Amino acid sequence: MFLALVVTPELRQFLARARGGAVRLIKVCIQDEQLVLGAYREPEQSWDQDYDHFLLPLLDERAPCYLLYRLDSQNALGYEWIFISWSPEDSPVKQKMLYAATRATVKKEFGGGHVKYELFGTAEEDVCLLGYQRHVSSCSGPAPLTPAEQELQRIKITEVRGQRVKTEISVESKHQTLQGLAFPLQETARQALQQLAQKRVNYIQLRLDVEKETIELVHCNPTETRDLPSRVPKDTPRYHFFLYKHSHEGDYLESVGMKLICVSAVDSLSECFIPAARLEIDDGDELTEQFLYDEVHPKQHAHKQAFAKPRGPAGKRGHNWRRTRVLLEVCLSSRFTFRPSDASMMFATETLVIYLTNLILM
């Protein structure tokens, strides 16, 4: 255990005077279990010009010490200082331990509010002007990261870069196309889709005008499930969106379904969203009530659990609207020829589906 070192009255008085700005550099040493004034220097030029000229000659390669160096900057308490602990490698271990244990005492005696930076050095390059500047630079930079934190940072950077290359499309988007692609949504079509999202209409039929490179509204007449087969043309491609109203296990549900009669565009759609169900039929007559119900709520054939899961607390089993807003994609084969190489049709399909996915599932 180290003895409590005493600050000599002379040193205490000198420190009080030095805080006023009359001194540039103070050297404090330990002698006979006392903290004493080793040396001091008064300012001659600016702090950076005086730094190496004053400080380096006071460093003893075999004896530790404390150094207080005054900067030209000030805070609310007065001038700001650098507190330097000098502990060379060749100094005795006992002295190193003694100076390390007394460091907080010296800082408290001088006044910690005046100290802007603290340095610790075992060689001149640690405490010289260049070493001080490196220390300040490291303090202003980010803290060092562990390998796990570095890996997490790389993942986040990769995700941000990936998001930058995507085009955001939503109800409020001013541009209704992907960057570099044609087929913008016609204003009437965009308004109809907004009405569908608000459940003000229950059916929309869209078409592609390849010559004008636009997606246009055909009609949004009220439609029941039994009317769907008659809505599907036999000789031309269409996009159909239908609000499927039905009951399931005692709950009333409204599921948004999409019917696309372009079988060749399935791969393009797969990149935009994951549908709740995917199938191919030969005729719109297959769009019956039972057919849609089975696709939205497929029968489960998995083995039952050995024990029943406990039910949630009362009030927590309310209707989950987000879960029941199922997006159903029905691909209808029709009597028309679709060329997979037709890039314009593929681009329009991708543009439309991305827009509608954000609109309906928001």
> Which structural class fits the helix and strand makeup?
alpha/beta
What is the highest CATH level, the class of the largest domain? Answer: Alpha Beta
Number of helices: 12
Largest sheet: 6 strands, mixed
Order of helices and strands: EHEEHEEHEHHHHEEHEEHEHHEH
Low-confidence stretches: 167-181, 260-277, 315-343
Number of strands: 12
Query: The CATH topology of the largest domain is what?
Result: Severin
Strand percentage: 15-25%
- Described by the principal axes of the CA atoms, the overall outline is rod-shaped
Helix content range of the residues, please? 25-40%
Roughly what is the average pLDDT, rounded to an integer? 73
CATH architecture of the largest domain: 3-Layer(aba) Sandwich
Gyration radius (Cα, Å) is 39 Å
Q: Tell me the count of domains.
A: 2
